[in-house]
Predict the structure.
Amino acid sequence: MPAELKHSDRLEKRDEKRYEGLEILYEDADIVAINKPHGLLVHRSPLAKDATEFAVQALRNQIGMHVYPCHRLDRKTSGVLLFAKNQTSNQRMQQMFREGKMIKIYHAIVRGFILDDGVIDYPLTHNDKQQEAVTHFKPLRHFEIPYEYN
């Protein structure tokens, strides 16, 4: 970095947004859905103090209004992320998720071979609190890549 830059200039350079121009998949008066890229956190978290960019702020800056995340996707997960544009819509969406009226479906490419559908029932534990976590899976397709793995 050139010596003539002040400390504040360096901070601005470091904070340049990699995630400007999030892909908007759907938008109406109440909600907006984006394609969250891998590596982007939904919002600030004490578990990822190294992060400087967040979907909430990036989308807010992009559309010029406050947004409320209706759910989360892990940092390393890409996919559809839904935001409410107002508190009423946010409450309605949160209720739909709680009541199981809204579900998330993940598609993954994995190494290995699975013959049958299955269920992983493994509660998540954080600070001695458990949260139910049930994953249903089924193989959609099998394929091989022409590369040897050591």
Summary: The beta strands are 23-27, 31-36, 68-69, 79-84, 118-121, 124-126, 129-131, 134-137. The first helix runs from residue 7 to 14. The chain has a mean pLDDT of 82. Residues 42 and 55 are 5 Å apart (CA to CA).
